[in-house]
Amino acid sequence: MRQNVIKQIFYTLDEIEHHILQKDSRGQCWDLRTTCAYRIFRAFDIPRFRLEPADPNQVLADLRSVIEYIEQSPMNGDPQTLGSNQVFHGCFQNDAERMQYLYGLAWSQLSRDQYFDAARLFADRMRNSNFDLSFLRGAECLDLGTGIARYALAMIQLGAQHVVGIDFSLECIQEAKRRLKGSEEGKLITLIHGDLYELSRDRDQAFDFVCANGVIHHLPDPVKGLQVVFRCLRKSGKAFAFVFSQSDGPWWRSIELIRKLTAPVPLQYAHKIVTFYEVQGTKSFNMLDYCYTPIQHKFDRKWFEQTLSDVGFRDIRFLEGGVIHDSVLRCKLFEADRELYGITEIRYLMEK
After folding, report:
1. Backbone angles phi, psi at 318, to 5 degrees
2. Domain residue extents for the chain
3. Distance CA 215, CA 199 (A)
4. Which among 255, 257, 253, 248 has a CA at the least distance from the CA of 342?
5. Which of 18, 78, 87, 315 gives the lowest tally of CB atoms within 10 Å of its CB?
6. The pLDDT value given to residue 84
7. Pairing outcome for strands 162-167 and 207-213
């Protein structure tokens, strides 16, 4: 019975795409496209944060309501109906500028208490997979793609001696510095604005722990990124990697669709729309992150593990646990989630 519902979800996603193309073949109805993208994302995202199985029937009903919304919308591709869309001047010149803006949004609405509670999420993922975090005590650490330095902060809170965080987004680095200013933890974190591929050679074999949380799958050359992780580690040092993984469930099909829907829409305009609907900061960023990152690799688990081995890592350990919204844990707990999402992200701890 549930498999039939899953098939209907796939069919409905295709139907949504068909209806949008009929309504707006030229990609000019930005409000309609962004609103539909958000409602698709919301249909799949909300169940992942509940301590109960996802309900595919509810997801299907939410998706069907998107079709009704499209059908009832007065908007179409006629320039006379588009209003201010045609005079919006917020476009970026290139992907780099767009990503600077996007990652400048990352977690921007976290309270101070939420920000400084960074260690809990990092520690829970490790401990729920039966990993001892004592290796962080007194460690010299590197955080690749540090964002606003929440994992860097977590490493200090869990006993690291010093953390170097690097990110290509100047906005993220500035926000991290603002949040850490005046804190004891901030004194132990060095933040660098730059490209991890160009990390200076004096960082080679300089770290006891290297973290690559959610950055490898956005790189043009993921293998080269893993090689950077490896070369920066000292002998017997440990590394952590989180990447997207392939799945046959409807989740990735929904992400593919929202990327198509928002492709013609400037990022700043989409941000204004979701903000207008009072989407909270973390959810707003998560949706826009899926929509607008130009590179979004999804790796086969066996391929990724073999690649880690080929790069030179040993004692490669897959995180079997996690927190409630992690797909590995949800798929272990709930059959419905295995069918609706599958394992969509994988995490590893490994050694040099």
Report:
1. -85, 135
2. 2-73+250-292, 112-246+299-351
3. 15
4. 248
5. 87
6. 46
7. unpaired
- What pLDDT is stored for residue 172 in this prediction? 87
Percent of the chain with pLDDT over 70: 89
The answer to whether the beta carbons of residues 210 and 135 sit under 8 Å apart is no
Query: Nearest CA to 348 among 175, 131, 172, 153?
Result: 131
Question: Which parts of the chain register pLDDT below 70?
Answer: 1, 77-94, 96-97, 100, 104-110, 118, 278, 280-281
Q: How far apart are CA 127 and CA 242, in angstroms?
A: 16
Q: Which of the 8 DSSP states describes residue 160? A: -
Q: Which of 229, 259, 232 is nearest to 243 (CA)?
A: 229
- What is the CA angle 247-350-172, rounded to 5? 75
User: Please, which residues bridge with residue 233 across strands?
Assistant: 207
Res 304: pLDDT = 98
Residue 69 and residue 15: Cα distance in Å, rounded?
Answer: 13
Q: What are phi and psi of 239, to 5 degrees?
A: -135, 150
Task: Specify whether domain 112-246+299-351 bears CATH 3.40.50.150.
Answer: yes
Among 328, 325, 332, CA closest to 317: 328
How far is C-alpha 322 from the geometric centre of its chain's CA atoms? 16
Q: Are 196 and 224 in contact (CB under 8 A)?
A: no
Conformation bin of residue 236: beta by default, left when phi > 0, alpha when psi is -120 to 50:
left
Q: Is 239 helix (H, G, I), strand (E, B) or coil?
A: strand
Spatial neighbors of 274 by CB under 8 A, at least 6 apart, are 34, 38, 284, 287, 288
Beta-strand (E) ranges in the chain?
140-144, 162-167, 189-193, 207-213, 233-244, 314-318, 345-351
The closest of 100, 115, 102, 106 to 181, measured between CA atoms, is 115
Please, what's the largest Cα pairwise distance for the chain?
65
Task: Select from 338, 283, 342 the least CA-distant residue to 53.
Answer: 338
Q: What angle do CA 22, 27, 30 make, to 5 degrees?
A: 105
8-state DSSP, 130: T
Reported as a single tens digit per residue, the pLDDT across 155-196 is 999 999 999 999 998 888 998 999 999 999 999 999 999 999
